[in-house]
Every structure is written in structure tokens, then in C-alpha cells.
Amino acid sequence: MDMLKRSLLGLTLEELQAVVKSVGMPGFAAKQIASWLYDKKVASIDEMTNLSLKHREALKDIYEVGAERPVDAMRSVDGTVKYLYRAGERHFVEAVYIPEEDRATLCVSSQVGCKMNCKFCMTGKQGFTANLTAGQIINQINSLPERDKLTNIVMMGMGEPLDNLDEVLKALHIMTSPYGYGWSPKRITLSTVGLRKGLQRYIEECDCHLAVSLHAPLPMLRRELMPAEKAFSITEIVELLRAYDFSKQRRLSFEYIVFKGVNDSLVHAKELLKLLRGLDCRINLIRFHAIPNVELEGADMETMTAFRDYLTTHGLFTTIRASRGEDIFAACGMLSTAKQEQKK
Questions:
Q1: Do both 58 and 79 map to the same domain?
Q2: Catalytic residue among 118, 121, 206, 332, which?
Q3: Distance of CA 138 to the CA centre of its chain
Q4: Does one domain contain both 38 and 87?
């Protein structure tokens, strides 16, 4: 991709209106370009055949579509595919495609690396490198080989979405707007450790589902697993969430990786009930995928089932998320870390 040219992919309709005005095109051309980008998913301006040749040439002087195919892929025996996308010079991000019987989900990244440094996360070990642009976020969907099969998007890949909120909100706007992909917000879930200011803005500006990375109901324990607890305490996050209504279209869930001997006891289950009492939410229990140089182990299925059953019988809707792509380390960070090491 010519780095001197600007990317059209990831621009909102309003931004496209400014683009066409700047190159002397009629205002209605913005909707035509949006259709080529997000509906027809073209790879080049030359394919935008309802624009005059003169206007295409004027656009091409400054812009390109900006779509880039994945540079690598790892395929699991269960059908999960991890794709590696280039994100600027010598940087890479991952997106994981997860096909199931009745749905197909893409796990999308929002940053190169991450500042949160959660103990159990490979991306956190990379440190933070860069925020993705809305175009780089949208490209993970646009250039996905299975894009036409997608039913759901989860912003749960590399990075903390609320730490790159302007670009993430822009990408979500494109996904849910009629000029973009036109998807229902119910098809999209954003996962966050809970950056307070960004969380409030996300809830008020966007209708997509929300998943909060919880992983421990006790602040001291959560701080050991997630250093962000020092700045964004889970008790404060839950209090903020109590001010909003999650009983209608939008779903609130809490992600809880179950670690053997760390957060899997009856004491932890009781503390969870106490913390979330009265909140309209669900808990997703997640099996831990081991990562290098981290001593944490995943709890066995018997422990997880007992944990789920205790929470459910006490009124907290709880599920165990099916583990996918374990043979390709589907949790984000492994493939991009390896690729970046090669480039050094």
C-alpha cells in the first residue's frame, strides 16, 4: 500500500463528504463511494465505475481504498482461523475468525500491543506500540476471506478498545450505519477492563453490547491479575454501571477467566454474587489458554461447572464459553509477537 496516499476505508459518510468536496466532486458522490467501500467492498478506486474517469483520477491523486489482505493465517482443527494483518511499518495485529453452527464471529483488535499489562494476556507482554485507525479496524472485517459469512463482531482482540475510543467509536459507527455495513448493534460486543471515562462515553454514545473483564471479585486479587485495577477499581466500575439500564436491547456481561487455585473457590463465587447483586447482567466463564512464562493454570471443567452451577442457582445467569482454537493459541498476541520478533 502506498503510504503517501490517504486511506478511504474507515472514513464516515461525513468525512467522505469532505473528501468529495475537496476534489471537486458533487456531494452525492460521498454515498456512492461509501457503497463501494462498505457494501461492494472494492479494493481499488478504479472499480468505482459510477464515478467519472476524471473524478476517479482526481481521487487517486490523494487517496486509495486502503484495504490490505492478511499477511499470514493459522488454522485450527476446529475451524477457527487466526489472521495476521499489517498495521503500519513493521507492526502487526491479529483477528480471529470463529465459525459455529449458527453463527460466525470475528474477534477484532483495536491497538498494536496494550498498556494494561494483564498477567494472563500475551498482548500485554508486548507493551503498547500504537493505536489502530478506524480504517485498520474496519480492514480486519473488510479483508477477511470469510467476511460474507460473519454474523457477529467482538472487540476483544489485541488492545484496550476504550484506550483508543475515538477510532473505535468511528469504526463501530461505520459497522452499524445504513451507509456502512448496516448491522444491528446487537451483533457487536466491546470488551474492556473498564476505563471509567471511556466507559461512560461508550455507554452513552453507542448501543453495542458491553463485556467487562472482571476475572476476580476481590480488588486485591484483581490488582495482582490486572494492574489497571489500581486506577479503575471494579467496585467503582460496577457502581457506574448501576446508573444505566441494561434490561432492554443492550446486554451487559462480565468475562471471568477461571484460574486453578486462584479465583475458582466458593469464596470467590460468593464475592461475585455480592459485587453484582441487583445488576442486570450475565457472567461468561472462560477457560485459560496457557501462555509462555506465566505460571497461571486453567481450572478443570469439573471446577468450572460447579462454579457456574453455584452462581446460576443463586440468580446470576452464568455460562461457560466453549474453548476454541487452543491448538493455534487463538487468544490474541502469540502470532503478532512471533512476527515482530522475526522483523527485528
A1: no
A2: 332
A3: 11
A4: no
CA 202/CA 205 separation, integer angstroms: 5
Q: What are residue 93's DSSP bridge partners?
A: 85
Q: 118 catalytic, yes or no?
A: no
DSSP assignments along 263-299, one per residue? S-SHHHHHHHHHHHTT---EEEEEEPPP-TT----BP
In terms of domains, do 45 and 106 share one? no
Annotated catalytic residue: which of 64, 68, 94, 160? 94
What is the helix, strand, coil percentage profile of the chain, to 5? 40, 20, 40
Q: Catalytic annotation on 332?
A: yes
> Are 198 and 219 part of one and the same domain?
yes
Q: How confident is residue 335, by pLDDT bands cut at 50, 70 and 90?
A: low
Q: What is the pTM of this model?
A: 0.93
Instruction: Give which of 289, 253, 251 is closest to 272, Cα–Cα.
Output: 253
C-alpha dihedral sign at 238, 258, 325, 321: negative
With contact defined as beta carbons under 8 Å apart, do 201 and 172 qualify? no
β-partners of residue 191 are 211
For residue 162, what is its C-alpha cell? 476504550
At 138-159, the pLDDT tens digits run 999 999 999 999 999 999 999 9
**Are 155 and 108 spatial neighbours (Cβ–Cβ below 8 Å)?**
yes
